[in-house]
Amino acid sequence: MSAPQIQWYPGHIAKAERQLQEQLKRVDVVLEVRDARIPLATDHPRLKSWLGSRERLLILNRLDMIPAAARQAWIDWFRGQGDRVLLTDAQAGTGVAQLSQAAQAAGAAMNARRKQRGMLPRAVRAVVIGFPNVGKSALINRLVKKKVVESARRAGVTRSLRWVRVSEHLDLLDAPGVLPSRLDDQTAALKLALCDDIGEAAYDNQRVAAALIDCLQALEAQPLSGVTPTLFFDRYGLSVEDSGEAYLAALADHRCQGDRERTALMLLNDFRRGSLGPIALELPPTA
Questions:
Q1: Average pLDDT, the chain
Q2: Which of 133, 128, 126 is nearest to 41 (CA)?
């Protein structure tokens, strides 16, 4: 089974990107949210050119889904790149208070400039931006402390831009997920599919599930990844002896009466829900 080709760029994303670039003129601080399991694959190649000199905070969401050692490795690596990085778990609310404080602090320079011009201070305006389904809306709901924007663990829920007041000190712009119009890096695109950070119509479940098995097998050699040699046996009572495609077929016979589609969905959902344990699909590049 060859590696699946993955492309996805629905019309609402193209429209939202145009609106976002207009709204950025009003923004003081950018809160860029990435998936902690795949921080490099959820890096939009055009984002820095859109932001210009605006203050930017990098947020790695879903910290609970990667091992603690991997979290620290990513913090160290991003700080070494000059990024201001925070880790959050939007579902549990972990790190959200620190994020609010950091956003307000990052916008303090704006009010300092206003004061110099004899103007009154105003709320800091921040935009929450990132790939689909990385947890942007869930973070906003946590910051506001109530459900003000729709949030679900699937790509494409937010389809338009909306300003939300967090407090008298902070306003947030919730934007739909943004993606490159063409996914030239198919390795990164596969990771988006594995983590459900792209629409389901972009891929075939069985091919992606087989690729997940191969990917996790390759990560056994990386201690920080969280993948153990007995991961599949511990979960399913069946060890991987061959390729991901062969294991998918064997597991279908073992657990799902030969139904490979049902087996593929079981594997993908177990990974996405954290039932296989905390796993980092990406680790910081080494020199």
A1: 88
A2: 133
